[in-house]
Amino acid sequence: MKFKFWGVRGSIPSPGPKTARYGGNTTCIEVRSDAGKLIILDGGTGIFALAQALLRELPVEANIFITHSHWDHIQGLPFFIPLFIPGNSVRLHGAFDPVSGNGIEKVMAVQLQYSYFPVREAEMKAAIEYETLSIGQPVEVGDAVVTNTLLNHPVIDFGYRIECNGKSMFFTGDHEPYYNIYDPDDADYAEYQALIDEKQASVDAAMRGVDALIVDSSYTREEYPSKKGWGHGTFDGAIAMALRVGAKHLYCTHHEPTRSDDELEAVFADLMQRHTPLPQGLQVHLAYEGLEVVL
Amino acid sequence: MQKLSAELEKRLGSAVESMPAFPKSVQRVLELTRDINCRPKDLIEVIEKDPVITIKVLKVVNSAYYSLPNKITSINQAVVYLGVNTLKNLALSFSTIGILPRQNGAGFDIQHYLVSSLVTANVTRSLCAKFAMDVDQNDAYITGLLLDFGKVVFAQFMPDEFNRALKLSEEYNMPLHKAEEAVIGTDHTLVGARLAKRWQFPNSLVNCIAGHHGPEYPTPLAQCLHVADLIAERLGYDSKGKISARGEVEALHVRFGGDLDKVIRELGDTTKIIEEALQFSQAGA
Ligand SMILES: [Zn+2]
Ligand SMILES: [Zn+2]
Asked: Which ligand is closest in space to the CA of residue A72?
């Protein structure tokens, strides 16, 4: 199995000279099983460049898994060129939104309203299928298996674990590590802590022992207090997570749109200095557009 | 609006007075959902103090609709799994459903009324999200939910007359509010608005309820409510309103493009909306 980052930015595309090295596109990861099956995690603007590359290997059979419905994870979908070419097949997987009652087809439909996008779904020539997943439902894609886990974000967010012939990876999508909403002297503090611990244990189990753990590391620990509750994690939180679950490689992604390449590297250097030497042989990487990893 | 007789004025006044107060917990949930910085624990505290809301939230969170892997046994646990945003939305719906009476003497189908109100509320919220993005979505939902509450007041306190109005509307295929006007001397928009006022809803919402059968729809929310009412009727959930029975319906505001069918198509799968309303109304029972 191998994977490649096509978009590593959070919230909004951020092109320009200050982000040229790590890239300004929003989230998209291409995964290939050993047999070459195509799995795409999220459809941020990075999916457009991936789409161009796929034109060399038509017909395409794409299995897209959406972590959640926020714009930065879906806004490239209408520009996934294989959708327009007959003979291709695209299967879009994702969660049900209990608040609006919408299934995963909505992330496409919401963007294909005629006033906002000139092509209607009926005019897309590929075979398009939608698969709204229930929590924990595994999906077989050729020789790989993709399993979702409910994580913590303002909307339902699925983290995905992909297994293929003994190798494994996990992508969180957007996720804020669980925290206690009570103060230590509140009566509910202990009960809530126990609930978090239980949920945390089940999430950890879903990530256990992966070869590659790709984590929302939007903020520094200094930035985090003013962003608490927004649904994103920190670099330090990502390392703690990787150590807890025994991951071999950690990839930090969902970079802040305002963070320049130089600032990103400075933040990372500080992080590594504080955590070196890392126990358990854990290796930590900053994700960048074009980074390709073979497991 | 014509002047009401002193006697009718008195009866309406005492009917509105006799309706239960709007529960404190619901007021608090509304206040908290309006505040973007509300602390999760404050919201949980309000919900947990109201056992009725708590039970309903847990019931729906554990339904097949959510298909969570574990049984959720407390509001705290629901927050850990679904997040405080989802909980906010549920609490708002249930706390409002909670104020509906269970039965009445007018032969008015409360269950159908409840589902109709939930459908209208849901459609209003979706319409605002698409066509009037400056309207607060919680305001849209709650106003949609309470739009026809005047009918409940009639059913409770003027059951005989309201029953005659229902029959008149049925027999002569006329809009219910016209039939109420003929039998009672006023319609449910006026009573509903007075009740909302007594419950201290903001004037902007009270006015929407007062004017929800026209002749004008001056604000974006009022326009969305009008269209939501028409769509709910089309879906078969109009709580006996028959608002377009005689085709005398005012034109859609330009923001909707003038074509009701197209607006309905843009809402997507409407069976989902009905399914959700049925789900909620059953949890409310
Ligand atoms: Zn994001
Ligand atoms: Zn997000």
From this structure: 1
CA distance, residue B222 to nearest chain A CA (Å): 22
Least confident of A65-74, A129-138, A201-210, B140-149: B140-149
Residues of B with CB under 8 A from a CB of A: 39-41, 44, 65-69, 74, 76-77, 79-86, 89, 122, 126, 266, 268, 272-273, 275-276
* Residue given tokens 């505001």 in the structure block: B253
Question: Which residue, among B125, B146, B120, has the nearest Cα to B136 in the 3D structure?
Answer: B125
Distance (Å) from the alpha carbon of A257 to chain B's nearest alpha carbon: 23
Structure confidence by residue, pLDDT tens digits, A119-149: 888 889 999 999 999 899 999 999 999 999 9
Would you call A181 and B65 a contact, using CB atoms and an 8 Å cutoff?
A: no
Q: How far is A192 from chain B (nearest CA, A)?
A: 6
Provide the whole-model pTM. 0.73
Distance A15 CA to ligand 2 centre (A): 19
Burial state string for A253-291 with b = 16 or more CB within 10 A and e = fewer than 16: bbbbbebbbeebeebbeebeeebeeeeeebebebbbbeb
> With contacts defined as CB-CB under 8 Å, which chain A residues touch B66?
98
> Nearest residue of B to residue A133 by CA position?
B67
Q: Give me the count of residues in chain B.
A: 285
| Structure-block tokens of residue A191 | 């009960």
Which domains, and CATH codes, for chain A? 2-294 (3.60.15.10)
Q: Which two tokens stand for residue A157?
A: 């967010």
What average pLDDT does the segment B165-182 reach?
A: 92
Q: Which parts of A181-251 fold into alpha helices (H)?
A: 189-207, 235-245
What value of ipTM does the predicted structure carry?
0.76
**Is B85–A155 a contact, with Cβ atoms under 8 angstroms apart?**
yes
For residue A199, report the distance from its CA to the centre of ligand 2, in Å: 20
Which domains, ranges and CATH numbers included, belong to chain B?
6-284 (1.10.3210.10)
